[in-house]
Write a structure and sequence with these properties.
- It is a single chain.
- By secondary structure, the chain is an alpha+beta fold.
- It has 3 domains: 37 residues; 81 residues, GMP Synthetase, Chain A, domain 3 (2-Layer Sandwich), CATH 3.30.300; 42 residues, no CATH class.
- It contains 4 helices and 9 strands, in the order H-H-H-E-E-E-E-E-E-E-E-H-E.
- The chain is flat and about 105 Å long.
Amino acid sequence: MLDEWKRKWGGDSGSPGGGRYSLYLLVAAVCLGLLALLWPSADTTPEPESVLPVSQAGGVNQARAALAADLEKILSQVEGAGIVQVNITLSSDGLKSYARNTKNEHRVTQEADSVGGDREVIEENQSSDIAISGGNALLIEDSAPEVVGVLVVAEGAGDSLVKERLTDATTVLLNVSSHQVRVETRKGAGQ
């Protein structure tokens, strides 16, 4: 088949270099075709970057929402409560305490002058920096934020007994005083 192609396209194969030119042209065309198949196209889309970690504030908001959802689930099981919604107010984002490396230097120098006087010089230096372990600050304590208020909205809160049960359950679960809990009747609830 190659000989046939050479005769058809190569012209006079008896002339010096006539057949070789066609063969070189064929090899070049095949190489260019392979190169075009292997070469990456310009319209390739980049791989998506990894998702960034949630910020500290986002983490606290997620924790608050999870706590409220858990409380809703529990309070909705109180007899007569019906559908329950909970909103929790926190005092802050919590408290994190980190380990510190502290260096204290205490130096006492006694000097005597030429007239017989003595004097003592005391130098004290203190420096402190956050301790690092594995490239991260060494966390000693991570305190959860304090709950300062809870609003519970329930269908059955119109009944004073249900309202009292919801208040008591909330104060026990969150370890807060009863004056920090407000229970209200849900809008549109049949009373």
